[in-house]
Write a structure and sequence with these properties.
The chain has 19 helices and 9 strands. α11 crosses α19, α15 runs antiparallel to α16 and α18 packs antiparallel against α19. 56% of the residues lie in helices and 7% in strands. It starts with a helix and ends with a helix. By secondary structure, it is an alpha/beta fold. It has 2 domains: 287 residues, 3-Layer(aba) Sandwich (Rossmann fold); 199 residues, no CATH class. A 7-stranded mixed sheet has the order 3-2-4-1-5-6-7, sandwiched between helices.
Length: 567
């Protein structure tokens, strides 16, 4: 027996490396961070395994680290219940000819049961199916297995579906799995495709035993073990320990018992199982991240296109045209001939028609404009169907540029985020336009100077007119005529009248092109300010949500990189 133990431990020596608990927790936290940053961006069905892992791992690490949970799993007739009883050296699990025999999991605990109670509650083994392997008669014979919690699982190929569901549930919770196969069905396709092959990421906590080896002739046993090893290698389980056992011979479980003693002594099975679970989850999530994103958002061309489309929806062309018209209107009212200024005031101000008073350079409101909240709606024309369509295309272009090069389904997430707040954009644009200082002055200095000159020449003309009227009145009344001073051949009153009228006309003609030029500058200035306001709306309602998805992608990529096992 000593020779067998030495050979088994020699074969197991140089096995899997130890798992650092701190590194495992770091990887687990990275998976949790991944789930946090991708929440709301990726389909929930792709994240179910990761959520399950985080919940299961957190619970397992909080439970007893002094116990190792090992399951015997096998098909009908593989003799795992007999092997379970042989390891316990007691008849604990029912064995019979009628199949399936084991319908629920049975547990045997080596050592005190108290420490394993919470662990068995977690895996769902009923109290009546729990047994303790502790007897004074054993002395130290069982001390090597103290801390082992051995489960005898139902048959995974049972005709009863509930048995298989129970097996699948428990296989996701245990620390180590001992797969029990028999000489007749060791090559069964179900055990390899549905189970063994799925455990290729858990080679460190997987052990395969060929049970009922006593049924094979001594010369056939090595050939069967070699064939089983070939199948295991094809399943991706290269290096997994393969042992031959028999429950009818007291020495037939020595190799398996030795392997279990080493597993219990290492206290690494739970950590290795969780490490393998993380590997599996990371492998399934790997296609969700790819190369590092080229940038942090859409390019300048797409951004300019978005700003232009938003400007169209916001009615910026109509507002800037109104700014130019309002400048001309107000300039004409301030610099025009005083006689016709009153007539101009009867015409409505173009900006006021849009409920856009336009603050002056000092930031003060037009005193003639009633106070109103910037939240009040403007009268800017509603966008046309073509403008709405252009905005949709611009948002699509922004999302396509921002999500270029990202693996699926991230581009769709970027598009969804970019469009998520489009319903709020019209009101936001209206507030932005209403709150923009359009830079339309009320009375700049040069308007006042020209206006003063207009009043001066007008008063001059009125003085000449009054002088002439007074002279005509004196003559009509037969009173002595006034002696009008002469300027050359022209009487001074006539010169004042005609000169004032002509000077006012010339001043208006000279001022008109200046007003047109200044109005165009006011329009360009207003267009730039409105573009900045509209760009701010695009930034807040379209670009920021898109960049948040890109930031989530970068965070997910970094988290998954941290969660990847490094050797």
């Amino acid at each position: 027996m000593t020779g067998i133990v030495g050979r088994v431990r020699g074969a197991l020596r140089g096995g899997p490396a130890r798992v650092d608990p701190d590194r495992l927790i770091t990887r687990l936290d990275a998976v949790r961070d991944f789930l946090t940053v991708v929440d709301g961006h990726l389909p929930d069905e792709r994240l179910v395994p990761a959520h399950t892992l985080v919940e299961r791992a957190g619970t397992r690490l909080a439970l007893s680290r002094d116990h190792t949970l090992v399951a015997l799993a096998g098909a009908t007739g593989s003799g795992k219940s007999s092997l379970f009883n042989a390891l316990a050296r007691l008849d604990l699990s029912p064995v019979g000819v009628r199949r399936p025999t084991t319908g629920v999991a049975h547990a045997c605990v080596w050592g005190q049961l108290d420490g394993a109670t919470r662990l068995l509650d977690w895996v769902g083994v009923l109290p009546r199916h729990r047994f303790i392997r502790e007897s004074a008669l054993d002395g130290d014979d069982e001390s090597g297995l103290h801390g082992l919690v051995l489960l005898d699982l139902p048959d995974f190929d049972s005709v009863q579906r509930t048995h298989r569901l129970e097996v699948d549930r428990l296989l996701g919770l245990v620390d180590q799995v001992v797969w029990v196969v028999d000489p007749q069905k060791y090559a069964d396709r179900l055990v390899h495709t549905a189970y063994l092959r799925e455990f290729h990421r858990h080679r460190d906590v997987t052990l395969v035993v060929l049970n009922q080896a006593d049924r094979l002739p001594a010369a056939e046993l090595p050939r069967v073990l070699d064939d089983l090893r070939r199948l295991l290698d094809a399943d991706g389980l290269t290096g997994v320990p393969l042992l031959a056992t028999t429950a009818v011979d007291p020495d037939g479980t020595t190799a398996l018992r030795t392997a279990l003693e080493d597993t219990v002594a290492e206290r690494q099975a739970a950590l290795r199982r969780l490490s393998g679970d993380i590997d599996t989850v990371v492998e399934r999530l790997a296609d969700l991240v790819g190369p590092e994103p080229a940038g942090t958002g859409p390019d300048d061309a797409a951004t300019r296109g978005l700003t232009g489309a938003l400007a169209g929806v916001a009615g910026v062309p109509a507002v800037t045209a109104a700014v130019e018209q309002a400048y001309r209107h107000r300039a004409a009212g301030a610099t025009g001939w005083p006689v016709v200024r009153g007539w101009r005031r009867l015409r409505p101000d173009p900006l006021r028609r849009l409920h856009l008073p336009g603050p002056d350079a000092a930031g003060e409101k037009d005193p003639d404009e009633p106070a109103q909240s910037l939240l009040a709606a403007t009268s800017v024309p509603d966008p046309t169907a073509a403008q709405r369509s252009a905005l949709g295309l611009a948002v699509r272009a922004v999302a396509d540029r921002a999500g270029a090069g990202l693996p699926a389904p991230w581009p769709a997430a970027v598009t969804s985020a970019a469009r998520s707040r489009l319903g709020d954009v019209p009101d936001a644009l209206d507030r932005a336009v209403a709150g923009t200082d359009l830079g339309v002055p009320q009375r700049p200095v040069w308007w006042r100077l020209v206006g003063g000159l207009q009043w001066l020449v007008t008063l001059t003309a009125l003085a000449g007119l009054a002088w002439l009227v007074l002279g005509y009145a004196l003559r009509a009344l037969g009173l002595p005529e006034l002696e009008n001073p002469m300027v050359g051949e022209v009487p001074l009153p006539t010169l004042l009248l005609l000169g004032g009228l002509l000077a006012g006309l010339l001043l208006a003609l000279v001022t008109r092109p200046v007003v047109r030029w200044a109005a165009r500058r006011a329009r360009v200035r207003a267009e730039k300010r409105l573009a900045a306001s509209v760009a701010g709306v695009g930034e807040e309602y379209v670009l920021v949500p898109a960049r948040e998805v890109l930031a989530a992608y970068a965070g997910a990529r970094e988290a998954l990189r941290t969660a990847t096992r490094t050797t």
